Amino acid sequence: MNDKMKILLVDDETGILDTLQILFRREGFNVAVANSGRTALESLERERPDLVLSDIRMPGADGLEVLARAREVDPELPVILMTAQASLQSAMRAVNEGAYYYLQKPFANDELLAICRRAVEARQLKVENKRLKKEMRRRDPGGGQRPIGHSRAFVDVLKLAETVAPTDSTVLLSGESGTGKEVVARYIHRLSNRSEKPFMSINCGALPESLLESELFGHVRGSFTGAVKDKDGLLVAASGGTFFLDEIGEMSPATQVKLLRAIQEREVIPVGATEPVGVDVRIVAATNRDLEEEIRKGTFRSDLYYRLNVIQLRLPPLRERKEDIELLALHFLERLAEREGRHVPRALSSETLDALVAYDWPGNVRELENALERAAVVAVGESISQDGLPERVREPPQARLVEDAPAPNPTMEVIERAYIRWVLEAEGGNKTRAAEALGIDPSTLYRKINRYGLDE
């Protein structure tokens, strides 16, 4: 046995513990001992063993509690449980809760050592597999799925994302709607040490405050009408992985307070509950708002902003990376063909490409994808013609935007208001089609309509 392998022996019977120590030291193990379950719970974090051999029946804390704690400390840590009073029910419970093996006393030393050797080998294989996967991700960061773009502005963002991905630092993605913030968030997750755990997300602007709180933090049965059973929140469901908070600037001040506590204390209190629940997630947040301006307005908490803004990545709008437009367009056509399972034109006429490059894309990459899908649906022949593009792309509404601007340098809010109004008019007031054209959720569009006074 590799003398670097450490085993933690746990038993409340001194004679058995002494015998096991002698046996495993002879086999070359580095041995740590605990004469009770409670001592073992404390030793797991301190000793960081490669293998645990524990009795089940012990006063204070039993072997199943040791098993549960071991899996919290290291999910790959093999735990072998032993007992003199074995039953089928207890064996099934131990295996279901993650025990590597369930052994009945008395046992032969050769049998025990063979089981421990297999457990150590299995752990070594898992560790090596993780190491190789990490090395492969380092050599090929995207794993064949690197976000599309070769412009300097976009590549700089990806390089920073690749640098921070292996850490657990909180990341704030800023940029206009449709610039691909969730794509970059997923890319960070794929390159992180949490890549084998869940990536979960929520749009903070798409849900009313009460429902958002329940989705984030969970609730207990009876906490509100319709809460017929306990439910874990998404922060708990994403345990070990990455949680993406989109449109964080839309979150209400009350929910901001609870999110801040979750980040600081690494625990949440479900709606209607009194006891906290621990969470272990890496937070990636995104916003299309200027959060520093929102802080000055009093709508966003400065303490939450500084918690989120550990690493900030600004995604450039499409008008600042026009050299990526052709590459993105061809990618979207390829993906549309795969999704639809039918023939889709894969080429762009020169007039079409000129129109795509000339347009400023207020809706960014999302708007480009929607425009290409529309053009592909109505296309005749083997290439996408300019006639298939939406009218706003063929004839950009610069004159309308200037007309709406009260100053020579209009703010983004002025431009956004003018553009939303123009799209609504172009779609005959149909908010569902307008939201699709803008590349945003209908609920987000309704809020912006109210915000900009566009109800009429």
Structural commentary:
A five-stranded parallel beta sheet has the order 2-1-3-4-5, sandwiched between helices. The protein has a five-stranded parallel beta sheet with strand order 7-10-13-6-14. α2 runs parallel beside α3. It is built from 20 helices and 16 strands. It has helices at 14-26, 37-47, 63-73, 88-96, 109-139, 152-164, 181-191, 209-217, 234-237, 253-265, 291-297, 302-308, 325-340, 350-358, 364-378, 391-394, 398-404, 412-426, 431-438, 442-452; strands at 6-10, 30-34, 51-55, 79-83, 101-104, 171-174, 199-203, 218-219, 231-232, 242-246, 267-268, 277-278, 282-287, 311-314, 347-348, 383-384. α1 (14-26) links the parallel β1 (6-10) and β2. The protein has three domains: 6-132, Response regulator (Rossmann fold, 3-Layer(aba) Sandwich); 152-316, Rossmann fold (3-Layer(aba) Sandwich), CATH 3.40.50; 319-452, Helicase, Ruva Protein, domain 3, CATH 1.10.8.60. It is 49% helix and 13% strand. It is an alpha/beta fold and 456 residues long.
Topology:
Blueprint: E1 6-10, H1 14-26, E2 30-34, H2 37-47, E3 51-55, H3 63-73, E4 79-83, H4 88-96, E5 101-104, H5 109-139, H6 152-164, E6 171-174, H7 181-191, E7 199-203, H8 209-217, E8 218-219, E9 231-232, H9 234-237, E10 242-246, H10 253-265, E11 267-268, E12 277-278, E13 282-287, H11 291-297, H12 302-308, E14 311-314, H13 325-340, E15 347-348, H14 350-358, H15 364-378, E16 383-384, H16 391-394, H17 398-404, H18 412-426, H19 431-438, H20 442-452
Parallel strand pairs: 1-2, 1-3, 3-4, 4-5, 6-13, 6-14, 7-10, 10-13, 15-16
Antiparallel strand pairs: 8-9, 11-12
Helix pairs in contact: 2-3, 6-7, 13-15, 18-19, 19-20
